[in-house]
Amino acid sequence: MTTLEIELKALMLASLDGNAASYRSLLDQLSRRLRSYYKAKLVTVGKGKVEAEDLVQEAVLAIHLKRHTYDPREPLTPWVHAIARYKLIDFLRRNRVSLTELPIEEVAEVMAHDDNADAESTYDIRRLMQRLPEGMQCSIQAVKLEGLSVAEAARRCGLSESGVKVNIHRGLKALAAFIARETRT
Amino acid sequence: MKTDDLVAFLSTNLEPVDRKAVVRTLYVAIAAGSIVAFGVAVVGLGFRADLMTARALMFLAIKLAFAIGIVGFALLYLTRLARPGGERKISHGLLVVVPFLVIMALAAISLGSAPQSHWESMIVGDEWLECLLSIPVIAIVPFAVSIWAVRKGAPTNLSRAGAFAGLIAGGVSAMAYALHCMDDSLPFIAVWYGGTIVLCTLAGAALGPRLLRW
Predict the structure, then answer these.
(1) pTM of the entire structure?
(2) CA-based R_g, chain A, Å
(3) What residues in A contact B82, CB-CB < 8 Å?
(4) Does residue A116 lie within any of the structural domains?
(5) Residue B56 domain-assigned (yes or no)
(6) What is the ipTM of this complex?
(7) Is the residue at B177 inside a domain?
(8) For position A100, which CATH number holds?
């Protein structure tokens, strides 16, 4: 097991317990690895760094929305790789790129290189958010963008605390679906 | 948008997650699907009339053991398949063939010890058509709730996850149908129970990629 796996898995376990600083560090490192992975894959089908950045963000969102599916008894790398590859295949299919050129690879490939030359993706969450229903918009705005507590957001949005949490989760899922549709080139 | 902004956005006010959510959702779904399946079988078809005789109870036990074996092994693997990359350890999935092999072996022994003239009635039974139709029909609700539960996770091999959801639904349905079914022979169980459960599995494999995308 590599030191990177050990380090990232420790961050993931802390994240599952709700440690935001660990989570930020985890997503930051994963996004750099994913960027390098996707750039290398997309160059073979003639796509560039903007599409790669879209995919990085799709994968990061998927990791966030599906983080409860990580089994702490297993290593983290294969889990990240499976999500990254699933999102890649989904992206290629959406854009009608033939899958025949996509070879089976080693799981470790997703973590192999680091690339922090980030680009702007083609969408903006604040703009996409305007399409969400009021309760989701208000909850995400308050908790995720302004950093208010769930209790404060509940008062502002006129929802219960669990209502705010549900609205955030559903809202993020809806945003991920919008992004998948937007990035069909 | 910059990825850094997305990362900051997602990590703001991070909520802890329930690590047992995947397993619990699946277990609850299968339990609910089983209750519905038993309800449909009992209300729609009724218990077999001779349920309390020793022979009927013995065959009911064999049918239940076969179906429960399938559901148990399949559920263990489905809790993996519902997670990204869970399909990599195929060895856990292969355990589900054990109940099929056991029932086929028992069926072969039973046929071997009976005169050839009895074979047809042992295999075809009285109600093969009812069995062929009932198990897939009773499996519909268990299949729907299994798919719902797998969708709460994140499968990355959709046909295989669909197949195992179908296999579980078929197994649950066979458990329920066994309360009604009067055909008591091992070859009948192997062919008609085994066959319809395989049918449910194939249907699940075909539907998986459509139903499970995320």
Answers:
(1) 0.91
(2) 17
(3) 69
(4) no
(5) yes
(6) 0.89
(7) yes
(8) 1.10.1740
